[in-house]
């Protein structure tokens, strides 16, 4: 496993740099924009995630001898370009939607300004991270809403590739999950980790009772016993018999959870274990979580569906050159002409328009202003707030957006951003974005 | 980025080890099986991938001070378990379906035999890798069939998380793709990489002609020009005007590819560029590739759909304790009793039954035999072949299944394995597995 992120890149990014260096166009000041043309899965809003990871990855985007040797041997680029890559450090500016913020079609999630070569080379890495992490966060956010205040744990590591699992845990946490099963996410990002036992632990022992006794001996009674390996009713009785009525929780991983949870609650109560909580974990998604809202379930463990974006495992974001300087040093909007992939060129700033009650009404994208600019002449009596923030200034990454500080900030921002959305945003059905995107 | 894979693990794997060590049950000889209850997406066959990566990851599964410090600080396990983890080396046996092999519901893709503790701790990592890589390979294999001999390049790095992208390139290559855009896959696994330019390269320049001239100057005429940034007909004319009739290829990334490819082929021919190839890359999947079979397309670039398993981004494989020794040292089959998640316990060996023409008829799973055993009394006049291979013996990994050698072997095996399947296996519609799984 190489630490450098520089080869997590499509071959053509480097051949473009190579050809542009030879043509003398590589240094043209350019602006790339990362955005989604639509919301995957006809969701009502998207959730930005991955920004902090991307900023960390950009700091590791270095062509050391190991990378350069490969590129030289495979003749991916010419010798002069190898030299250029050896010195590569992103030296430009990056603005964008801060992590945790909600977004809509066309939202300029990242604006990368620098030379063509230094900007284009980040395309693949930026899209890989943002597309996956945002897909997970977008799904996770809906689940958090569906859970109606009850805590959710992310447990999907086994259903996505091993390093994606860590990213997924992070994205779900930003979107409001309380914990993860993934230990690397605990180490790398400080996310609370949790878990007790699987069915194999029960099957290892000569009886369910012996398994429960072993677990209680190791962790005390404030643990979660998995009670559905054999017969659920007997499992509950054995659990309380072994742990007493102070047992922390029972976990149910099979069956019709609405029915079973009610039966287990009644049984626990009848045994005097009125404080013992119920957690459920059987192939949940936002719809099944919502359906369990009225049942006596205390917490949810969500696996597969959150790490695969609940049916939309990637956001479909793209990274496009939207403007560049011409020979006179003036910015020129550029756009591909193909009708089915039209993108809106030029430099942009963004404000979220809110009504007098603080409810989001629309996303205002001001063309022509640089990111972070304060457009004048907005014809609104209503309030609006600035959306873009600057992540990188002259190549220097603002560290508050990275690491555990960045995650804490993103989690808080997500909460605030969701609270602004109109009620329709929380619909789990497919439909139009919750607010419109307007270009001004 | 930590090199150790040990924390790419669910919290509960370690708490189970902790409790089992305390209870004196951790050393019970156990057999875990990794299998899929059904084929995701109602596919006709699955393709095993990830095995080589898993074997490499198991060799990196070490709890160094960095991992142990985290576990100690977070009190994930007790001090005595920390000591056990510090010495952890998998010392058991692993048998399974070799990479590239096709599989069916119930196929024992991995059989992990060792102490309970040393086997259970690999659960999350094994599932993460196998579920993702196999999902990609299963989708990729269908695309290869749909392409009917024309080459496919994997270009989906931007639509899956950055390290998954490398795994996806590897899995697609095993399933028969010819190349990838992902440079890290080229470095790590020796997979051919390819790519030339994106629309941004054309937009960087003052005209399409200048962009084409820059690319030809850098790479000669045997390159691929992207001709749909503005007007496709004009793009083709400019391409041939700049490169001459020896231009290697043109790439089309938008529009109705069936119509456009035919028009571009006719135009190229009319301009004398009869050897210039056409490659297409616009949101392809196995269905659109199949639909283009009769069109004058020479090669395909597939992005999103292959890296997200074309609608089935994870295989739904599970890792279950199927047998363990009792206090008398006898193997005992174990199985969870819950009706909706029944698994077939015990030790197994597998043969693929073929008819007299060498066409696969069914997957025979022999219960009770150890993996690799040669069951007797098979009542078939037909032929059959052994499926399982041994990957790990006494903790030692058979290196031929890893690295570039393992990939080459897997790619060849996939070709041979696919060639055995009945015609129905190649149906792109949803349906039953191509052959039945029979327990004997």
TrEMBL record, chains A, B:
Residues 7-131 form the Nicotinate phosphoribosyltransferase N-terminal domain. Its EC number is 6.3.4.21. Pathway: Cofactor biosynthesis; NAD(+) biosynthesis; nicotinate D-ribonucleotide from nicotinate: step 1/1. One of its GO terms (cellular component) is cytosol. It comes from the Bacteria. Keywords: Glycosyltransferase, Ligase, Phosphoprotein, Pyridine nucleotide biosynthesis, Transferase. Residues 152-343 form the Nicotinate/nicotinamide phosphoribosyltransferase domain. GO terms for molecular function: glycosyltransferase activity; nicotinate phosphoribosyltransferase activity. Pfam families: NAPRTase, NAPRTase_N. The keyword Flavoprotein does not apply. One of its GO terms (biological process) is NAD+ biosynthetic process via the salvage pathway. Transiently phosphorylated on a His residue during the reaction cycle. Phosphorylation strongly increases the affinity for substrates and increases the rate of nicotinate D-ribonucleotide production. Dephosphorylation regenerates the low-affinity form of the enzyme, leading to product release. It catalyses: 5-phospho-alpha-D-ribose 1-diphosphate + nicotinate + ATP + H2O = nicotinate beta-D-ribonucleotide + ADP + phosphate + diphosphate. It is an enzyme of class 6 (ligase). Catalyzes the first step in the biosynthesis of NAD from nicotinic acid, the ATP-dependent synthesis of beta-nicotinate D-ribonucleotide from nicotinate and 5-phospho-D-ribose 1-phosphate. Belongs to the NAPRTase family. PANTHER family: NICOTINATE PHOSPHORIBOSYLTRANSFERASE (PTHR11098), NICOTINATE PHOSPHORIBOSYLTRANSFERASE PNCB1 (PTHR11098:SF8). This is Nicotinate phosphoribosyltransferase. The lineage of its organism: Bacteria, Bacillati, Actinomycetota, Actinomycetes, Micrococcales.
């Amino acid at each position: 496993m190489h630490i450098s992120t520089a080869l997590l890149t499509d071959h053509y990014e480097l051949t473009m740099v190579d050809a542009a260096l030879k043509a003398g166009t590589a240094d043209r000041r350019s602006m790339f924009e990362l955005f989604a043309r639509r919301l995957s899965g006809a969701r009502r809003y998207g959730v930005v995630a991955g920004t902090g990871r991307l900023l960390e990855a950009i700091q590791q985007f270095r062509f050391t001898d190991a990378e350069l040797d490969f590129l030289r041997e495979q003749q991916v680029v010419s010798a002069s370009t190898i030299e250029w890559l050896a010195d590569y450090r992103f030296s430009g500016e990056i603005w964008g939607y801060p992590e945790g913020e909600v977004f809509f079609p066309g939202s300029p999630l990242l604006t990368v300004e620098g030379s063509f070569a230094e900007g284009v080379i980040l395309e693949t890495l930026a899209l890989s991270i943002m597309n996956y992490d945002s897909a997970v966060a977008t799904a996770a956010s809906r689940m958090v809403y569906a859970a109606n205040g009850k805590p959710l744990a992310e447990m999907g590591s086994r259903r996505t590739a091993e390093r994606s699992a860590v990213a997924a845990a992070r994205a779900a946490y930003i979107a409001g999950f309380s914990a993860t099963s993934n230990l690397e996410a605990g180490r790398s990002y400080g996310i609370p980790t949790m878990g007790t036992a699987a069915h194999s632990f029960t099957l290892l022992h000569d009886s369910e009772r012996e398994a429960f006794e072993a677990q209680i001996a190791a962790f005390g009674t404030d643990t979660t016993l998995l009670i559905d390996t054999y017969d659920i009713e007997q499992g509950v009785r054995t659990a309380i018999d072994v742990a007493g009525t102070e047992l922390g929780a029972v976990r149910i991983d099979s069956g019709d959870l609405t029915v079973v949870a009610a039966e287990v609650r009644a049984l626990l109560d009848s045994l005097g274990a009125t404080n013992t909580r119920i957690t459920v974990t059987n192939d949940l998604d936002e719809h099944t979580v919502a359906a369990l809202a009225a049942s006596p379930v205390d917490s949810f463990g969500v696996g597969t569906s959150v790490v695969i974006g609940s049916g939309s495992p990637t956001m479909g974001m793209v990274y496009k050159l939207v403007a560049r300087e011409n020979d006179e040093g003036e910015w020129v909007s550029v756009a591909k002409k193909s009708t089915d992939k039209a993108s809106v060129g030029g430099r942009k700033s963004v404000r979220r328009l809110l009504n007098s009650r603080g409810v989001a009404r629309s996303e205002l994208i001001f063309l022509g202003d640089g990111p972070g600019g304060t457009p004048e002449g907005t014809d609104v009596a209503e309030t609006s707030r600035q959306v873009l923030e600057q992540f990188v200034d002259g190549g220097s990454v603002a560290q508050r957006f990275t690491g555990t500080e960045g995650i804490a900030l993103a989690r808080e921002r997500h909460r605030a951003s969701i609270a602004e959305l109109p009620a329709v945003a929380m619909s789990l059905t497919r439909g139009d974005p919750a607010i419109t995107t307007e270009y001004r």
